[in-house]
Design a protein that fits this description.
The chain is α+β, with helices and mostly antiparallel strands and about 230 residues long. It folds into 2 domains: about 5-110, Archaeosine Trna-guanine Transglycosylase, Chain: A, domain 4 (Roll); about 120-220, Up-down Bundle (Methane Monooxygenase Hydroxylase, Chain G, domain 1), CATH 1.20.58.1480. It is built from 6 helices and 6 strands, in the order ββαββββααααα. The chain has helices at about 30-40, 120-140, 145-150, 155-165, 170-180, 185-220, and strands spanning about 5-10, 20-25, 45-50, 65-75, 80-100, 105-110. A 5-stranded mixed β-barrel has the order 1-3-4-5-6. The radius of gyration is 21 Å and the shape is globular.
Length: about 230
């Protein structure tokens, strides 16, 4: 596998290939890292931080991350660095070759395993696309998404990454999706997650409507509505 050395930006975020991540940094270490990247090839490795191990202990992070390109950068009025990162390829950190002034890792670029594109897999992708639109509708975020996010890719791996990026689930669950190599496994996991999330959103919408109707009948403000 192809290996290269990249500066590592450790964040409380998971970036998928094909997704954008707006970010504002204020720590001097991260500002120095981004400034050096901007004077070079504008690429940085994004990896998810693990939970803090306690004061004075080194930061731990997940080995699988995403190589990203800086596509926009500016200095804010508070002297912070605001950037937009675009995810390109997944990687795995093989070793850390530099710790100061920021971490640099030797990474291997990860390839994806493609199952045979069967009619069943195509049907699964079509079902996922429909469910994703329903999920977006229930979350009421369609008007907040860029048009490019609403037009789903036809490439199956790109579709899997788009779904992973749009899911509002815990970071450790998004990280698990990022680490999946096989397209069939990735789509099946996302089907399971979407089924779960849509059920929860539908239940929440039902109870919200129920409370509103109870409040109207009792002429109570929504915030004072009761369940019984």
């Amino acid at each position: 596998m192809l290996r290269q050395e990249v500066p590592l930006l450790l964040l409380e975020a998971v970036l998928f290939p094909g997704a954008k991540l707006p970010l504002t940094v204020f720590e001097e270490r991260d500002k120095r890292l981004l400034e050096d990247c901007l004077s070079g090839d504008c690429r940085v490795g994004v990896a998810l931080l693990k939970r803090s191990q306690g004061a004075g202990k080194p930061m731990d992070f997940y080995e699988v991350g995403t190589l990203a390109r800086i596509i926009h950068a500016e200095i804010t009025s508070e002297n912070q660095v605001a950037v937009v990162l675009y995810g390109e390829q997944r990687f795995r950190v093989v070793e850390i070759v530099q710790y100061e002034p920021y971490r640099v890792g030797r990474v291997e670029i990860l390839s994806n395993r493609f199952s045979f594109v069967s009619p069943q897999l195509t049907h699964l992708a079509n079902r996922l696309s429909a469910m994703l639109y329903r999920y977006i509708e229930l979350r009421e975020i369609a008007d907040k998404l860029a048009l490019a996010d609403m037009v789903l890719p036809t490439d199956l791996m790109s579709l899997g990454y788009r779904i992973g990026a749009l899911l509002d689930v815990p970071l450790h669950e998004k990280q698990e999706l990022l680490e999946v190599d096989d397209i069939n496994e990735l789509l099946l996991r996302e089907l399971e997650i979407l089924n779960r999330e849509i059920r929860q959103l539908q239940q929440s919408a039902f109870w919200h409507q129920f409370v509103r109707s109870k409040a109207r009948r009792r002429t109570l403000p929504i915030e004072r509505a009761i369940w019984n």
